[in-house]
């Protein structure tokens, strides 16, 4: 049986190699985001929320920017299934299609993981916007309720929007160097929108970014291990 392959032609297409150092750098970046997030809980979260409340919260265009990753929540699973079926049927797909398939899978993995973490940490939101939730800006509430995140009113940590955005863009950036700048811009806009709208704490955004990077990196690494002759994480 012919093995599944991302594309015809050379074993390592010029625009899609992912070297082991790139994967390691991505994972170190995730760890850095997580460590900074811990520090932000103590010293950054509340000042940033106060600033956003005073200057940018409620600005319509910023709220639109904050929702930049919203289509990923809807399209990731259908794209993953459809491209997966096409891959099984045709036995090979162009590199761009493989990238989209992996990115959609990373978004799916990240979405499931962030939902589990929201339940575990049960964090209150910066502002009141769902089910009359207690919040810092209205009620002065700033806390984690471990394993209390079954209610969306206590589900701020980590940021789902940053998780899916980083999961998606990490796959794109690792597989296609030319997309790294557009990916960085999309990440920056999403983070700005989420914080400036007081939708999330700074630490939520950083933790979501860390989770998304891990999801994207692990999906790419798993694909490389599956493909004969490609470099793998830790090789």
Automatic annotation (TrEMBL):
The keyword Repeat does not apply. It comes from the Bacteria. Residues 99-220 form the Phosphatidic acid phosphatase type 2/haloperoxidase domain. Keywords: Membrane, Transmembrane, Transmembrane helix. The chain crosses the membrane at residues 26-44, 70-89, 96-113, 153-174, 181-199, 205-223. The keyword Transmembrane helix applies. This is Phosphatidic acid phosphatase type 2/haloperoxidase domain-containing protein. It comes from Pandoraea vervacti. The lineage of its organism: Bacteria, Pseudomonadati, Pseudomonadota, Betaproteobacteria, Burkholderiales.
């Amino acid at each position: 049986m012919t093995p599944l392959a991302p594309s015809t032609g050379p074993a390592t297409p010029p625009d899609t190699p992912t070297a082991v150092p790139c994967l390691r750098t991505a994972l170190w970046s995730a760890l850095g985001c997580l460590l900074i997030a811990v520090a932000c809980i103590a010293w950054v979260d509340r000042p940033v929320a106060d600033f956003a409340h005073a200057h940018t919260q409620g600005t319509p265009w910023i709220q639109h920017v904050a929702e930049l990753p919203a289509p990923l929540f809807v399209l990731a699973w259908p794209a993953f299934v459809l491209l997966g079926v096409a891959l099984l049927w045709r036995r090979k797909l162009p590199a761009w299609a493989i990238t989209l398939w992996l990115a959609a899978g990373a978004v799916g993995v990240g979405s499931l993981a962030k939902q589990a973490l929201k339940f575990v940490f049960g964090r209150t939101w910066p502002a009141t916007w769902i089910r009359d939730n207690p919040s810092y800006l209205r009620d002065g509430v700033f806390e984690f309720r471990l394993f209390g995140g079954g209610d969306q009113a206590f589900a701020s940590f980590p940021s789902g929007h940053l998780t899916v955005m980083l999961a998606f863009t990490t796959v794109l950036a690792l597989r296609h160097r030319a997309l790294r700048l557009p990916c960085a811009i999309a990440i920056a806009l999403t983070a700005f929108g989420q914080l400036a709208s007081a939708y999330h704490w700074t630490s939520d955004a950083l933790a979501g970014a860390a989770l998304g990077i891990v999801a994207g990196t692990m999906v790419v690494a798993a694909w490389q291990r599956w493909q004969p002759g490609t470099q793998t994480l830790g090789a």
